[in-house]
């Protein structure tokens, strides 16, 4: 059992292919059962376990785990909604020599293990099954989901039925989109991986520790990265972005336009806005959008920035003015929240992973689709889904902080995908370091601490 950090994210179809490529599904189910039984034994210290088994291979995993727990002397009962339908589940059921209670009549146990449905769920649970799952989950002290909580759609994290909250979800073989994407991700409790030795490959993975650029003996302010932040109507947002770029590690931040606010850090260099200011070849990234406004002046600034040929971070208001299909002369990172994303790319089909990936391919830019489950997508198809932020980030200005931090990483010479990943990670860690009820200014300050 290990954390899912850095692991590949596989759709249900990709999981089936990985299983087929391995070739021995019975062995994989035995491995899964062993991992589940081992985890439960370690965590629940002898308390009685009730395992709910479904008709497919998720249920099969449950029968195997129950047999192994029983062989080890652990008190375990099984309840099922019906007979197993798959060959593997049937074989696993045959090797269980205890009783199988009808789900509707099952009495609760302190530990509930849900092995009803996993990646094969294709429609809402039958009403009776959903009701029994809730009844038994409510009465349990500790709830464990095998692979996925029953009722969540593996590929997009939607809930096909009402899903109870779990304390632990044991992801089998690989992470799935639903382990990361909301609302499903909010119902899983801790997510831990049981390695099945599949060595799955995917272009999508869970965020891991990112290597951040470090200054060395030969560093100077321009080599650390020079960021230009283009201000507009709402000065505060560009201020936050500028300070955040410095605190995330940029060597020099040039704030273009806007008024000189009292008490702002003197480390930010301020100039009036002019398109010519962007001619400085040392500028490694331009951040535009926080507080820009959407008027003609804002549009003119965005046009000048797009024509500058400098690497770009495009956020906030600038996303409402941008034509995502227009060719650009330089790499760009777009950082929309869901509303900005929908306005820019349309509502679209599929999971947030699918949609961010399609948007990156369409725009030729790295797309950071922000939220509790931030998705970073590169035009080449790579995707990273972030974990480890904080719901306290839902306060005004935290996106401006991310835009500034992203500019810092881009200006330091990281690729747009690596820059976006590093910034999202740093931002999430800063949020955690801030604790509760912080404001965006605190978050910007915390960037220095977590670096
Ligand atoms: N891939 C791997 O490497 C490994 C995978 N493993 C395990 O296999 C799991 C995937 O197994 P799976 O494909 O059999 O799917 P699963 O989730 O058990 O359900 C499918 C069954 O439910 C049925 N059904 C569906 N929806 C329904 C509904 N609403 N209401 C009622 N019935 C419904 C569906 O029937 P049908 O849709 O045809 O009616 C079918 O019978 C995976 O999560 C993991 O636990 C591990 O053992 C080891 C390695
Ligand atoms: N509930 C939440 N949980 C985790 N992160 C969140 C949540 N809500 C917002 N965030 C994060 O906070 C930031 C908000 O950015 P944005 O919506 O652009 O705000 P603003 O425009 O006010 O700066 C993003 O990085 C987003 O991922
Ligand atoms: K399950």
From TrEMBL:
Residues 10-204 form the YjeF N-terminal domain. Belongs to the NnrE/AIBP family. (6S)-NADPHX binds at residues 57-61, 118-124, 147, 237, 291, 337, 400. Its cofactor is K(+); Mg(2+). It holds the Pfam family YjeF_N. It comes from Sphingomonas aurea. This is Bifunctional NAD(P)H-hydrate repair enzyme. K(+) binds at residues 58, 114, 150.
């Amino acid at each position: 059992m290990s954390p899912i950090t850095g692991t590949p994210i596989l759709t249900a179809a990709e999981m089936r292919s990985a299983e087929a490529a391995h070739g021995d599904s019975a062995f994989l189910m035995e491995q899964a059962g062993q991992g589940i039984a081992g985890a439960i034994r370690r965590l629940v210290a002898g308390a009685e376990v009730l395992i709910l088994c479904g008709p497919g291979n998720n249920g099969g995993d449950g029968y195997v785990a129950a047999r192994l727990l029983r062989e080890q002397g652990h008190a375990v009962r099984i309840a099922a909604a019906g007979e197993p339908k798959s060959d593997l589940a049937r074989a696993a059921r045959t090797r269980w020599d205890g009783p199988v209670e009808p789900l509707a009549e099952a009495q609760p146990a302190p530990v509930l293990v849900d092995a009803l449905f996993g990646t094969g769920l294709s429609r809402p649970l039958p009403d009776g099954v959903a009701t029994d799952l809730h009844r038994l989950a409510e009465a349990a002290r500790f709830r464990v989901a095998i692979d996925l909580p029953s009722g969540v759609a593996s590929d997009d994290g939607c809930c096909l039925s009402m899903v109870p909250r779990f304390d632990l979800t044991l992801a089998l073989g690989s992470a799935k989109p639903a382990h990361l994407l909301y609302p499903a991700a909010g119902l899983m409790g801790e997510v831990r991986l049981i390695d099945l030795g599949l060595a799955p490959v995917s272009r999508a993975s869970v965020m891991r520790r990112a290597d951040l650029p470090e200054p060395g003996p030969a560093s100077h302010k321009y080599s650390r990265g020079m960021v230009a932040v283009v201000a507009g109507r709402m000065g505060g947002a560009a201020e936050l972005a500028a300070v955040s770029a410095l605190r995330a590690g940029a060597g020099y931040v040039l704030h273009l336009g806007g008024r000189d606010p009292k008490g702002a850090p003197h480390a930010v260099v301020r100039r009036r806005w002019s398109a010519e200011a962007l001619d400085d070849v040392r500028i490694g990234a331009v951040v535009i959008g926080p507080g820009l406004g959407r008027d003609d002046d804002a549009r003119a600034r965005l046009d000048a920035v797009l024509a500058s040929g400098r690497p770009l971070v495009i956020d906030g208001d600038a996303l409402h003015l941008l034509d995502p299909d227009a060719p650009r002369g330089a790499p760009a990172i777009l950082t929309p929240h869901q509303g900005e994303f929908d306005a820019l790319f349309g509502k679209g089909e599929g999971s947030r992973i699918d949609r961010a990936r399609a948007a990156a391919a369409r725009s030729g830019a790295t797309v950071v689709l922000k939220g509790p489950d931030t998705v970073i997508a590169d035009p080449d198809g790579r995707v990273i889904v972030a974990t480890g932020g904080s719901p306290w980030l839902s306060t005004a200005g935290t996106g401006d902080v991310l835009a500034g931090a992203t500019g810092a990483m881009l200006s330091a010479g990281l690729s747009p995908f690596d820059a976006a990943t590093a910034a999202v990670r740093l931002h999430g860690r800063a949020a955690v370091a801030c604790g509760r009820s912080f404001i965006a200014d605190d978050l910007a300050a915390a960037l220095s601490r977590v670096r």
